[in-house]
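Case study 2.
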Amino acid sequence: MTGPTPVRTADGRLAGVLHDGGGEPAEHSPRPFLHPVSTPGGGIVSDYAPADHPWHWGLGIAVSTIAVAGQRHPVNLWGGPTYSDGQGYVQLPNNGSQRGATAPADAGVLQRLEWCAADGSAFLHEERTWDAETVRAGGADWVLTSVRSRWINTSAGVVAFGSPTTAGRPNAGYGGFFLRLAPSFDGADIVAGAAVGSGGPGSPTGSFRVTSGDAGSVSEEDAMGSRRAWLGLRSATASVLMVPAPGNPGGLSPWFVRSSGTPMLCAAPFFHAELRLGAGETFDWGWSLLVADGRMPDSAFVDAAGVAGAEHAGGPAEAARP
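Prediction:
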């Protein structure tokens, strides 16, 4: 494990501080996370260990329900209790960890991580890079933090990534690229984009473009579980936007989002159905988070999403490859 590592843009702005999670309680599923996540002006948009869910830590990759051969219970790399159909949430002896080393790379910060079950056995190797840049979109500066990640199944069998919804709880499909938002986002507007192009929802190779007609405020109910090219929230003081790479496994991402009480944003590829990764097989992922100061209009979200889309044009996980 390594100490906190700042992730900065080329012009010196702090995108966030990367922690390895090694000092966190075992029942919270220790894993790397970025916090505080900062706007160009230094405002903070992330939260850490809120009282309602102390295992929510800034921005990171967290999966609640992972079926691994030889494990009695699904591995929990989200933290806290696990949803079990017919029993509700139960604290099981199944909280795993993501652990490894962090080092500077040619572009950003590189992490080589092992995903481990509660008994310490590793079942997946990950290479994850974080990098950040300042971009101009919609007449404003945004800090764009990109994560590229390659998952390699190192177990002897299939690994199946799921969610509480795939385990039986409706409308609780969280897990994936996850940001716990600061309390200032309680009651924030949800701004949604749609996919347009050769691929449709669910197409793993579909491309998308965004136009001004694609953006607008939607309700939490309409956004939850929907498949969209991007999703964002805006409070009185800041705006955040998440954009998955269009070539990610599983196709156009479903979303888990809350803007009331427990504000959070999650590109949740396992929301509705498990994704299965065979022994020795690989998943390549790419995600971007963009943050700006102030309450950005719909058109600025569209412009920023277009910038992130261009960033992903080369395909996910290129920077992570050895």
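Residues 195-213, 315-322 have pLDDT under 50 and may be disordered.
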